[in-house]
Give the backbone structure.
Amino acid sequence: MKKVAVLGSTGSIGRQTLDVIASQCDSLEVSALVAYSDAETLAKQKIKYGAGYAALIAEKGADCLIDAVKGADTVVVATRGIIALDAVLFALKEGKTVALANKETLVCGGELVRSRLAGACGRLVTLDSEHSAIWQCLAGEDSAAVKRLILTASGGAFLNYTEEQLKTAKAREALKHPTWNMGNKITIDSATMMNKGLEIIEASYLFDVPQEKIDVLIHPQSVVHSLVEFVDGSVMAQMACPDMRLPIQYALTYPERLPSCVKPLDLVGACLEFYAPDCNKFKCISLCRQAFAMGGLYPTVLNAANDVCVDAYLKNKIGFFDIAEIIEKVLNCFSPRGEVSAEAIKKTDAEVKKFTASLTAEI
Ligand code: MG
């Protein structure tokens, strides 16, 4: 039996992870659950899944994430923000498998995770649907044969909005995502395409491919989850009905491929469309590329500024275009100091959030 700790168990990915574990009860069991503040759901989950450990971050602080990791073989990280960074580094040091759904850990701490992986016996696998697709396309391939990675994007709720419509587009419209049912933060990130920008950084760390070799393709149906182009001109794609339980199960049961409850894909009569992203309407992709190229703590600056902007947008305090504009301003004004360390990331995150909040308050 593989013991799985689920960090962020009451969120969308956490709940679907528990579904998958329950459906594979011959090989997977829940050893620990950590949620941020939803005590009621956590208590129900603890009983239903028989977890030996359950804790709330709001009550016990981030240390409970480390305690939850201790008794597990695999750690699913589905928390928000950078709160699980120390727990991820600890799990890798202890030789555990980290199944990462959270992007911020790699966006901000990718260098730390990479050096931890180089020196330890732990493993990093991904639960992100696009990255899972790339992982599956790369199976058995030589990394030297990879020409580029192509991340698909649904385009989010505002894909077909005109610039005029975007000026007054409200968060509640964005929350009606066409193909994926996700948490509020990531749904807004999908509407701004910040999610795809963060995924470029994530893919670069996961597969050790420079960002110049990672492209984005809009694909509204979310059936092709991503593609890999090889040097011989061959392109591999992974397809499935959009359902997060598939990448979750693949990560948890890897290298085995087991039957799942995901709806079979029927391509008869299917219409699959692909477009280039509109980088004028959706500036966040290039902001991510810029922050990643600046390196060091700049991705942390970008991520923290985005967090505050998304929160302000969800509360109707700022407009759609303000999000990218404020993030760009923060990237240009804020100079983070020092080497990348877990401490420096947390400190920069807090400082940038304060600075960004002062900018959103002016609007
Ligand atoms: Mg994704």
Observations:
- The mean pLDDT is 96.
